[in-house]
Amino acid sequence: MKNILFPLLLILSIHSFGMNTTKRDSTKTGKQYVSVIIAPIALSLLSVDLMRDSIKYGLQKVFRSRVDEDFHTGIDDWIHYAPVVMMYAADLFKVPAKNTVWNQTKYLIFSEAITAGIVWGLKYSLKIQRPNNGAFNAYPSGHTSQAFVQSQVLYNEFRETAPLLAASGFLFSISTGTIRILNNKHWVPDVLLGAGIAMLVTNTIYHFEPLKNWNPFKNLKEKQLDLTFMPQLNPDYMGGYFSLRF
Fold first, then answer.
1. Which residues pair with 245 in a beta bridge?
2. Dihedral angle at the C-alpha atoms of 144, 149, 150, 156, nearest 10 degrees?
3. Is residue 150 scored above 60 in pLDDT?
4. CA–CA separation, 205 vs 45, rounded Å?
5. pLDDT one-digit tens code per residue, 105-123
6. Which architecture does CATH list for 2-210?
7. Contacts 24+ apart (CB under 8 A), 177-181
8. Are 91 and 101 in contact (CB under 8 A)?
């Protein structure tokens, strides 16, 4: 178990080192930007270093030695959505956040789109084969990058008002990366680079805040967001009614 926990603790310690703990200020400095990108850059550089075959195969063996050879779970296809679900649930329960729901969604979409472009561009340019002898698109991990975008957005939105909620998203993103390795779908460096790219892009978006004042719903008073869900059950149907009103 210690062999598996060490890389995870390394990820957490590097990320914690690079977290920006200063309070929000109307004037953002270059020093503040460096403080939020140093951890992602460190993860990415570590990933490149670990891509050497002599290390990559050894790390995979260490991780996979804790599970059966035919181990597989599909939970990694779902838990990477948890941070964004938690964010909108917090909005539903009126937990104070850094931004309005519209800006949260806007920055989430920007971060996901840019991250996906970089990740998929690298996947099909580098053509690294997956450890299960599958497709040549292992490096970096797409599931992990998506998970870390969401957990970083959650953290950036609630780190000052609800620190435990903000940090909890990383439990799901780290778990997603770990399970991708245990499922033999990705190498350890794949996961590290996916996480690094995701956090770098997301923190850059949050620092520069592109299109900050663009809001086609500004006349709808977005801060008065009203969410309603009514479940509907009968012998032939299970579903519900969802309403989002500004």
1. 226
2. 140
3. yes
4. 21
5. 999 999 999 999 999 999 9
6. Up-down Bundle (1.20)
7. 177/11, 177/141, 177/143, 177/144, 177/147, 177/148, 178/4, 178/8, 178/63, 179/73, 179/75, 179/76, 179/79, 180/76, 180/141, 180/143, 180/144, 181/60, 181/63, 181/64
8. yes
